[in-house]
Design a protein that fits this description.
By secondary structure, the protein is an alpha+beta fold. The protein contains 16 helices and twelve strands.
Length: 358
């Protein structure tokens, strides 16, 4: 069996501002079949940008070197600074699997393509405009990536080095009007979206973009049974009152198993504390009236009662298998973010461990 590789994609500040993140993630997962294993938001500081930019230009062939110089200049110009009251935000996504580098390259595509068909991410989300003399007048790559194993290792180690100082929950990058009621809220893209590689996780994020809110946190998470018990603790009494003690407990354990992969009654305390087998994505959104806006786009718990165009109408199946969770208050958002540890840096140890044994 071929050894698994890591690959990465950085969603650019322009793609973040234009809410293209969901579409990009859809393409990356569904077209590569790779496992999205980590993600982290960054507001890159000047030192990270400088060091990343210095690694980009490596080619001696002038044609390829010119493209790399274009990317380097793009990074230096766009990965810092403020545009329309927003500091530059980027999302780093890490994938794992066989032939991850080649598969990622095929999905991302070239900077310049003779025939733009929308087949690759850069065909759809990037722009390369040159005048009659061939001088580039506008350039937006959509995403950045490396397609050489050594370069990927170098870049991931660099971003991991800055993952605490420049990454995490970047809640100080958007300028809001003075006195605005700014909230943070939590969204979980649920495990039913990850049963096989498909466009659903990105599709759900794309619909959430209609809220007009800002993604300031992103984490790939496997909820432990203990975390799921705490997260859904308030639901237990509701289900017991509605269904009776035994049936209510059973229905609650069904939810825990769906979210984490294990049933509390069948596991020891030590087993319940281990990372679960089911994957979800935790996102933190920020903005004015964020809780209400997100829940409005999400729709009611029962997909059959959700309005057309809502996430649960589009992607949900049952009251439990309903695509996503969103906090119902700013207070609960804070509580739930603590439970799933959205501030945890799970990127850095992954990179360190992977390359320590490779």
């Amino acid at each position: 069996m071929q050894a698994e590789e890591l690959s990465y994609v950085i969603v650019t500040p322009y793609s973040m501002r234009k809410s293209r993140t969901g579409g990009i993630i859809s393409r990356l997962i569904s077209r590569t079949g790779l496992d999205l294993i980590r993600g982290r938001m960054f507001a890159p500081g000047s030192e990270l940008v400088r060091r990343y930019a210095t690694t980009i230009v490596t080619e001696t062939d002038q044609r390829h070197r010119a493209t790399q110089e274009l990317i380097r200049d793009y990074v230096l110009k766009n990965f810092t600074g403020t545009v329309n009251g927003q500091r530059a935000r980027v999302m780093l996504l890490v994938f794992r699997g066989e032939n991850a580098i080649r598969k990622t390259q095929e999905a991302v595509g070239h900077i310049v393509h003779e025939r733009t068909s929308g087949e690759t991410i850069r065909d759809t989300f990037g722009d390369y405009i040159a005048d009659g003399a061939g001088k580039v007048t506008y350039f937006e790559p959509g995403v950045l990536a490396a397609f050489d194993a050594d370069a990927i290792e170098r870049d991931l180690k660099l971003w991991a080095e800055f993952s605490d100082s420049d990454g995490g929950i970047i809640d100080d990058v958007i300028d809001f009007p003075e006195g605005a009621m700014v909230e943070k809220t939590l969204v979980l893209i649920k495990p039913d979206n990850f049963k096989f590689p498909n466009s659903r996780p990105g599709g759900v994020i794309e619909v959430f973009s209609r809220s007009g809110l800002y993604i300031i946190g992103f984490k790939v998470h496997r909820m432990s049974v203990a975390q799921a018990e705490e997260f859904y603790g308030p639901v237990l009494d509701v289900l017991r009152d509605k269904l009776g003690p035994d049936k209510g407990r059973g229905a609650w354990e069904d939810i825990i198993e769906f979210m984490s992969g294990g049933r509390p009654s069948a596991m020891s305390a030590a087993e319940r504390a281990e990372a679960g087998t089911e994957k979800c994505i935790a996102l933190v959104y920020q903005g004015i009236d964020a809780v209400r806006k997100i829940r409005e786009v999400l729709g009611p718990t029962d997909p059959s009662k959700a309005p057309p165009g809502s996430i649960r109408k589009e992607f949900g199946q049952t009251i439990m298998v309903n695509a996503a969770h969103a906090s119902d208050s700013a207070e609960n958002a804070k509580r739930e973010m603590e439970i799933v540890q959205v501030r945890e840096n799970n990127l850095k140890p992954l990179i360190e461990n992977f390359y320590a044994r490779s």
